[in-house]
Write a structure and sequence with these properties.
The complex is a heterodimer of chains A (128) and B (81).
Chain A: H1 2-29, E1 33-34, H2 36-63, E2 68-69, H3 71-77, H4 82-127
Helix pairs in contact in A: 1-2, 2-3, 3-4
Chain B: H1 12-22, E1 29-30, H2 32-59, E2 64-65, H3 67-80
Helix pairs in contact in B: 2-3
The chains are: A mainly alpha (128), B mainly alpha (81).
């Protein structure tokens, strides 16, 4: 139980740190000060919101008879506001594009390595 | 975490742990792309919360964003998410 509590505190602290950075940047941008209390409140709310996200995501995945939460589940979570839904859609398309580029890079590298290996083998055979 | 280029994001590991500790079933996992998207959602959530609080403070002619400003925008924020 204690370890669970310790992990929770560590996660909260990590969230709080990132939230603090985000808040400060925006406040500075808008030329305003923001109190530490406010940052703490936003961090706590974000932490709890994540719990809500997780439960929704798990429910969606289970509904689709899956054990792994996918990008489609996240898109569903963002359904309430059109702007948010569009933003997430855009991000998921960027991700898919990135993954494809990475795949193609790897294929090229694998092909390169294969031809290099074959050349090396041929050289060895000649030497023998 | 702040990176060069001034982009603050939630770390994948943090988000992943946050999600898995809230799952009811042990079998449930998250794909790595989904983790990235949830990190984005959280970032948008925090940015919205902050910007709306700033707007609220603005409308009350305050230079400092106080917790009461956040409290006023919180209900609509939660409904929008």
């Amino acid at each position: 139980m204690d370890e669970d509590e310790a992990q929770k505190q560590r996660l909260k602290a990590a969230v709080h740190y990132t939230v603090g950075c985000l808040c400060q940047n925006i406040a500075t941008d808008c030329e305003k000060q923001i109190t530490k209390q406010t940052i703490a409140a936003i961090a706590e709310t974000a932490f709890r919101q994540c719990d809500i996200f997780a439960k929704d995501l798990e429910a969606f995945a289970r509904h689709a008879k899956r054990h792994t939460v996918t990008v489609d589940d996240v898109k569903l979570t963002a359904r309430r506001t059109t702007a948010l839904s569009n933003y997430i859609q855009q991000k998921s398309e960027e991700l898919a594009l990135n993954n494809q580029e990475l795949k193609e890079k790897r294929k090229k590298n694998a092909a390169k390595r294969k031809s290099k290996d074959m050349e090396a083998e041929e050289e060895n055979e000649l030497e023998d | 975490m702040a990176n060069a280029g001034n982009e603050v994001v939630f770390k994948k590991e943090t988000v992943s742990k946050l999600l898995t500790r809230s799952f009811k079933e042990d079998k449930t996992k998250v794909s790595s792309d989904a983790v990235i998207l949830v990190a984005e959602m959280l970032k948008v959530f925090v940015e919205e919360a902050t910007r709306r609080s700033v707007k609220q403070a603005d409308s009350e002619d305050c230079d400092t964003v106080d917790i009461e400003h956040f409290e006023k925008i919180l209900p609509q924020l939660l409904l929008d998410f």
